[in-house]
Structure formats: C-alpha cells, structure tokens
Amino acid sequence: MIGTIVKKEIAANLLSYKFFVVILLASVLIFTSFFVLDRDFKRRLADYQLIKPQPGQPNAVLAPNPLSILAKGLEDSMTRSFEMGRIGIDVRTGQTGGNPIFGFFASPDFVYIVKVVLSLVALLFGFDAISREREDGTLKLALANALPRSTLLFGKWLGNFLSLAVPVLLVTLLGIAVMSLDPSVRLTALGTGRLVLLLAVSIVYIALFLSLGLLVSAVTRKSASSLVVLLLVWALLVFVLPNLGTLLARQVVDLPSVRALTEKKQQIWTREVLLGMSDRANWDVHYLTINSEFNRLEEDYRVKFEQLVRLAKAINRISPAASYLYAATEIAGTGIGEESRFKGDVVRYKDRVVELMLKGSKDIPAFGYAYRSVGRVLAEGGLFDLAWLLVLNVIVFAAGYAAIVRSDVR
Predict the structure, then answer these.
(1) If you average pLDDT over residues 125-131, what whole number do you get?
(2) Beta bridge partners of 81
(3) 324-376: pLDDT as tens digits
(4) Residue 99 has pLDDT above 60, yes or no
(5) Which H or E run contains 27?
(6) CA-CA distance, 65 to 68, in Å (whole number)?
C-alpha cells in the first residue's frame, strides 16, 4: 500500500504546475548562487596570492576555503590579513568579497537557500497533502477501504519527500560537478566528505519542514487555513527565533564593546610609552608589559564572548533553522567554532613572533593553520545539531500521526 501511495503522490506532483515552478525556482537559485560565489571565491583567491606572507614576514593569512562557496559563514572574518607586531595584531581588510552586493544582502550561498527558500518549498509540498483530500472527500473514501492511517501518512510523506529531495540533490550535484571542473576549486578527500555531510544535514532539515507541513495539514480542515498557519510558523522559525537568543544573551553576559576594548589598549600603550621614555634602558620590559596587558584584555574579552556565543546558541537552537546553520557552517569550516579556534592560533603565533623579535631573531616561522577534522567538528557540537534535527523530525512526524489518528475525516 505504501508503494501505491508513494507513486500516487509522485505522479500528482509531476502533473502539477506547482512542482515545476518550485523546482525551476530552486534550480535557478542554486545555479545562480554557485556562479556568484564561485566568482567571489576566485577573486578572494587572487587577493590571497598577492598578500600571502613571504618567508620571514610575521603575517597570518588564511587561504580561502572552497566550501565557502556553499556555506560562506564567517569566511570573510577568517581570511583577513593579520600582521604581527611588538604591541599587538594589526588586522587589515585582506581578502574582500568580490561582489559589493553582499554588503546589502546576505550572501546567497547554498546554506541560505536551503535555510530560507527550500524550507518554504517543503511546506508548499506538504501544506495540502491531507487537508486537500479532506476537502475533496477522497480521504474519507481511502480510509473506508481499511487503509491504515499511519500507512497513508508515511506514504504521503515519502512521496513528497522524494519529489522534492531528488531534484534538489540532482541540481546541486550537477552544479558542484560543473564547479569542480575549474582547477582553482579543489576539493580534497576531506573536503568531499564534508560536502556529503553538508548535503545530508540539508536533506534532514528539508524533511523536517515537510513533516511540519503534513502536521498542520492533518490538523486543519482547509488548505487555505493550513497555508496561513504554516507561513506564520515558517517566519517564526526561520527569522524570529534564530535572533531571539542573541538578544537575550546580550542582556545576561556583560560583554564590553570593541570600542571600549580599543580605548583601554590605547590607555595601556600611552602609559607604557611615557614610562619607557624615562626608562629607555628597559624598553623591552615595557614592550612585554604592553603585550601581556593586551593579551589579558583579549583573553577576558574572548572568554566573555564565548559565554555569549554558548548561551545564544543554546537559546537559538529552539529554531531548527539555527541548528541547521550552526551544523552546516561548522562542517564547511566557516562556523563560529572554527573562527574562534583560528583566532586563538593567531594570538599564539603573535606571542611567538614577539618573543623572537625581542631576542633579535629574524628567523620568523611561517603561520600555519589546520582545520578541525570532521570527527572533531561533530564532537564539538555538530553531532548535537544533527541529532537535534533528527529528533525534531521524529517529534513532528509523530505529532502528525497522532493528529491524523484522532482527526475526523468527515
């Protein structure tokens, strides 16, 4: 029976103008995203070739990440040019996005399309799956023939899921295959594994919104009512709740502003320079004091910032959109966890450079950074986000089953 229902749903979708409109929209958006961000990646790669440090230069510059084409995340923050000096780190603009439109709108990467557009498309596939048949009277006839309601619900879910997931995956893989023909976009074996995991998380996220559509369709009696309710829920889950945690966390964690931190550093610098002018024989001591005080301020700021991030992420995970964004960007190597680890390596490199400068050594080691392994990414939060999306899928589908079992199909 499940196979029959699945075939019926797939056939109904293939004969529906809705299917071709949404698949065409998704295809255009995905291909446009790959084209725009691929060109942006090439421009940033060209910038990197110009500003990457030469032997003996105390600079820290990270090469662009090919997976940032799919998940931009905090890539712009990570690929700045960090120049080391005796009194701290001078952050330059470094590699900039090649497309100025990113300053006005979010980067149209694959993750953004899945998080916003394809979640809405999934709702459109499921919003009338039950309510439409209730309105037409076919639901009552189907259940009158001893068709289990669980079989009906799962068959509809699977049929609509295949109708949506298969075309999206084919379009995405085709776009990735075309990009991979470019020698400047190289995905290593590790990068390919991250890509597969990123696509898997995206499919789980899309499946959740399809289940949500079926749940609301089973609860409401009219398709129009189902659509209105789902649009409201979609707006809350995708736009409102992901920002709520950050607002609440800022009220709890007393994080100093960057301006206040800069002014405090300036005070320390002025104090030590004035002291050094009257004690020129101990300039190195004052340089070390400046470096130590700067490190203390930055460490205090980083600790409070990480507290803010942990609290905000814990609250934001109420929304599956936030969990998906965290998981996708961390898997791609452009998430806030990777960015924090990278900045920590930059600070440690600066301390090493200062130590060598004070010794008079000109043998400055080159900066190097290795991305976390996939296993470590999963262990440090990625697995939790993926598991949370799976749990939400089960909860929403179970709620849909309970709703259709208890509903009056007349």
Answers:
(1) 89
(2) 61, 92
(3) 999 999 999 999 999 999 988 998 888 888 788 777 777 888 888 999 999 99
(4) no
(5) helix 17-51
(6) 5
Q: Is 81 helix (H, G, I), strand (E, B) or coil?
A: strand
Phi, psi of 302 (to 5 degrees): -65, -40
More confident residue, 189 or 144: 144
* CA trace torsion 177, 178, 184, 186 (10° rounding): 0
Q: How far apart are CA 380 and CA 386, in angstroms?
A: 12
Kindly tell me if the per-residue pLDDT of 199 is higher than 80: yes
Q: What is the reported pTM? A: 0.90
pLDDT for 83: 84
By the 8 A CB rule, do 161 and 12 touch? no
Radius of gyration of the chain, Cα coordinates, nearest whole angstrom: 26
* Whole-angstrom distance, CA of residue 48 vs CA of residue 62: 8
Q: Using CA atoms, how far apart are residues 200 and 211, in angstroms rounded to an integer?
A: 17
Cα–Cα distance for residue pair 397/403, rounded to 1 Å: 10
Q: Which long-range contacts (CB under 8 A, 24 or more apart) does 261-264 make?
A: 261/297, 261/298, 261/301, 264/297
Tokens of 303: 């600790």
Please give the Cα distance from 377 to 357 (Å, whole number). Answer: 35
CA distance 126 to 140: 19
Tokens of 343: 């900045």
Count CA atoms within 13 Å of residue 230 on its CB side: 30
Mean pLDDT, the chain, integer: 87
94: left (phi over 0), alpha (psi -120 to 50) or beta: left
CB 47, CB 96: distance < 8 Å: yes
d(CA 50, CA 58): 15
Q: How confident is the model at residue 104 (pLDDT cuts 50, 70, 90)?
A: very low
Angle at the Cα of 114 (from 188 to 338), degrees rounded to 5? Answer: 45
Q: Are 77 and 118 in contact (CB under 8 A)?
A: no
Q: Is 193 exposed, middle or buried (0-12, 13-18, 19+ CB in 10 A)?
A: middle
Which residue type, as a one-letter code, is found at position 326? Y
Strands 81-85 and 59-61: antiparallel
